[in-house]
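SAMPLE LOG
Freezer: B-3
Tube label: C17
Construct: single chain, 214 aa
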Amino acid sequence: MTWNIRHQGSPRSIEGLTVAQVVDGLQDGLWEATDEVMGPNDANWVALENHPQFADLAMDLEAAQPKHYDDETRLDMNPLIDVCLVLLIFFILTTSYAALQKVLELPGITSKKLEGHVAITNDKVKDLMVKVNVRHENGKSVIRVEDTVVEPEGLVTALGGFYRPDKRKKTDILLDADLTVDWGTIVLIQDAAKGAGMERVHFLDTSSVPVPIK
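STRUCTURE (predicted):
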């Protein structure tokens, strides 16, 4: 006695199965309760869940193993939220630093800090240093190298023109900046000095306190 089985409404079927094979296929998930079976005494195709031979088994399996289908329309927002939080923290830190940089002023040097240092003579200033003057004019910092106005992007080139390491001349910078100049401009000049190969930056009126370029 053989049995035939097919998926619901399919024109193709599998023939020559035994009852045990149909039961095994149903238990293993090869067949669903809605798939159709035809026995040796059946005139028409009958769903497994409606056939008296398999109805109880199909009902038990369907109740014990409910099917779950992935919802492809669901969007996981957790990675997007994580990225947004990281960007928010980055923008907060950047904005805070930019605002802080605007209010920082050039720190002063007290007379106490000058104790124990040797003053640099005018001759050494003339022989070894490039004079850089910074003043706050018309709402912005104006940089002059040896009395010539230089834009920030051309500062490295301008300082490099005075650098003469072979003759031990112009290896330092004498920086004259008033307290209205923001600290960011001072750092810019120090970076440019390093890029031009200068060794130290000295501040006017505190020229005995050299600031090494790190």
